[in-house]
Specification:
The complex is a heterodimer of chains A (about 180) and B (about 240). Chain A has about 180 residues and is an alpha+beta fold. Chain A contains 6 helices and 8 strands. Chain A has 2 domains: about 90 residues, Orthogonal Bundle (Arc Repressor Mutant, subunit A); about 70 residues, Winged helix-like DNA-binding domain superfamily/Winged helix DNA-binding domain (Arc Repressor Mutant, subunit A). The chains are: A alpha+beta (about 180), B mainly alpha (about 240).
Chain lengths: ~180, ~240
């Protein structure tokens, strides 16, 4: 929450009411998606729980006493899912991963890091990748473990890593 | 004994009348000639003046406005066409055409968030930001430039009354009622049906119908969390106007 700059819409009271005009609503949803993603990025939010969503600061602005109603939040999350920025963890759509970068993009970043630090043909643990000192300056430092796994699976699918299971811990070999 | 009026007298009278007429038209001609001469002189001076102060006219908005007014008073419109003395001499025709294009660009670039309504403040701020300090434009320039655009059809209009000035580029013309509500909104920022009805002396139905139209064209946004529901206008929302 440190230096996140809210867009002007966040202080515009009708932004928290889904607009009846379909053209305007489309513009409004664009702005909501952009806001949720940039907010998620700035606060490192990777998962959103629908039942708790209404208490997230992104969906309410107490300074102007406005909050996005639950049904409107559902519309915004569904729109994010449609755009590939959100993936439901289950069919009941109670929880979702928020991708302000797609798993493929994350994978690309991780692979670039591995290349630039000569890790090709070596093995790294997941902990090293998202918590280790050596990634402190990387964007994927602190990344949600589930999202990290998705990123690595995407890399595996393109033949760039091999995921290894060490029982209680997991690691990857960069190829 | 009184002499009766004879043929001679009648003829004399006629000759006299003719002489008067002749003199009259002579004087008239003289006057006309002098007036024409004066006008010609004035025009010449104006042209001299324009040529001399070409740079000033191009750069100083205040000066430009006064020059325009001076021209209008003798029936010269420096903007009338792209050809002819005025344009070649001053390039003012181009000046307004270029400005017109910039205004259209601004309207298009911002219409996704303001629905096609721009406050004069925003237009001036954004356009002047891009201009050199000694080359700023005024509201008068904007109004003239938009009027020039009318030849392209009724796509754009400046609404100016008192302190409230805005430009709208909404497909289809707005009626007086719509314009009136936009003026109210420009002053207040947002409107409710009841308060607008009472301040304008309209029925609630009339205000509601007009606001609904503004919602449909995407100029207004509805806030249902306000009690009663209020109508907001991004164009007149300060933080929106300064957003890039």
């Amino acid at each position: 929450m440190t230096d996140f700059e809210w867009p002007w819409q966040y202080n515009f009271p009708p932004f928290f009411t889904l607009q009846p005009n379909s053209d305007v609503r489309k513009i409004q949803l664009d702005a909501w998606c952009a806001l949720v993603l940039s907010w998620g990025k700035s606060n490192n939010v990777s998962q959103i729980d629908v039942t708790e969503a209404s208490s997230l600061p992104v969906f309410r602005n107490s300074a102007i006493s406005r909050a996005l109603p639950a049904d409107a939040i559902a519309v915004v999350l569904e729109e994010l899912a449609k755009r590939g920025n959100l993936e439901w963890t289950d069919k009941s759509k109670r929880r979702g991963y928020l991708f302000w970068r797609s798993p493929t993009e994350w994978g690309q970043q991780i692979y670039t890091w591995a290349q630039s630090t000569s890790r090709i043909n070596t093995v790294s643990t997941l902990y090293e990748i998202n918590q280790g000192d050596e990634t402190a300056s990387e964007e994927f430092h602190g990344l949600d473990i589930d999202v990290l796994m998705k990123a690595l699976k995407a890399l595996e699918a393109s033949g760039k890593v091999e995921i290894m299971d060490f029982g209680d811990n997991q690691g990857v070999k960069f190829l | 004994m009184r002499r009766r009026a004879g043929v001679g007298a009648i003829q004399r009278q006629k000759i006299q009348q003719d002489k008067f007429k002749e003199k009259g038209s002579e004087i008239q001609e003289n006057q006309l000639e002098q007036m024409t001469l004066q006008m010609e002189k004035f025009r010449e001076n104006l042209e001299d003046f324009a040529a001399k102060h070409k740079n000033e006219i191009k750069k100083n908005p205040q000066f430009r406005k006064q020059f325009q007014e001076m021209c209008a008073s003798i029936g010269v419109d420096p903007l009338a066409s792209g050809k002819g003395f005025w344009c070649e001499m001053l390039g003012v025709g181009d000046f307004y055409y270029e400005l017109g294009v910039q205004i259209v660009e601004l309207c298009v670039a911002t219409s996704h968030r303001n629905g096609g309504v721009l406050s004069m403040d925003e237009v001036l701020r954004k356009l002047n930001q891009r201009r050199r300090q000694d080359n700023q434009i005024s509201a008068d320039d904007v109004i003239r430039a938009v009027k020039k655009l009318r030849v392209l059809g009724s796509g754009m209009e400046v609404v100016a009354s008192g302190s409230s000035q805005f430009i709208y580029s909404i497909p289809g013309e707005l009626s007086m009622d719509h314009t009136t509500l936009l003026q109210q909104a420009e002053k207040a920022g947002h409107l409710t049906v009841a308060s607008t009805a009472s301040s304008l002396g309209w029925t609630n139905e009339r205000v509601g119908r007009t606001l609904d139209h503004l919602l449909r064209v995407g100029v207004a946004w509805r806030d249902d969390q306000d009690r009663p529901a209020s109508y907001w206008f991004p164009a007149f929302f300060q933080q929106c106007a300064v957003a890039e």
